[in-house]
Amino acid sequence: MKKYLFFIITLTIPNFLFSQTYLGPIGGLNFGWYSGNLWENHISSAEADIGFEVVGSSIPLANLGIFIDMIIIDHLCFSSGISYNVYGQDCFVGSYDILLVEYRQHVIEIPLLLKYSTSNGFNPGLYFIFGPKIQFLIRDYEMKFLFLNEIYENDFFVPNNLFLFSMLGGFGYEIPNRYGLFKIDITYNRNITEPSYLVSDTSSSPYGIINNIALNIYYGSKL
User: What is the CATH number of domain 21-222?
Assistant: First the structure.
């Protein structure tokens, strides 16, 4: 009797806590830029050394992964998954044909988000998401110098701490159907812990704070 009772409980509790669950791919584009005092001092120092203005530019970089949405109660959902993201920024020095500097960070991320949706699970609606992300740096930080469309120098900095945390917020629109869920959103993400890239024995690199705006598209099948 106890075995049958335990079996019934294990089947009913997940359905009670998460009345609907969606699982599927996510893809999108990131538009990032660096900030903070160290970054501003780095740019000012570079401009003073070379005698040219350094102009930052956010370019689209890819993200790809898998997401899962689990509805806790009406309009409230837990959203997570795992994704591969590339963050970074380009800087043009002097003019577009003189020198381009590319900054890149490659990370694996796991978001732990709460989603509030105006949809009732059957009709389309707006939603809002907020929460932390766990980030894992999977490659060394890369800074590439290009001169006249040719690679002039490619530097790599090894991070001391591979795990970071960031905070994310955003809004989107979702369209459920009898088989799954389609949604699209815009998010803003900023790390709250910083990687430590030692560029010398006495100073840390200025690439610690990365801001990111992302446009994401999802489609999940109902489980």
Answer: 2.40.160.20
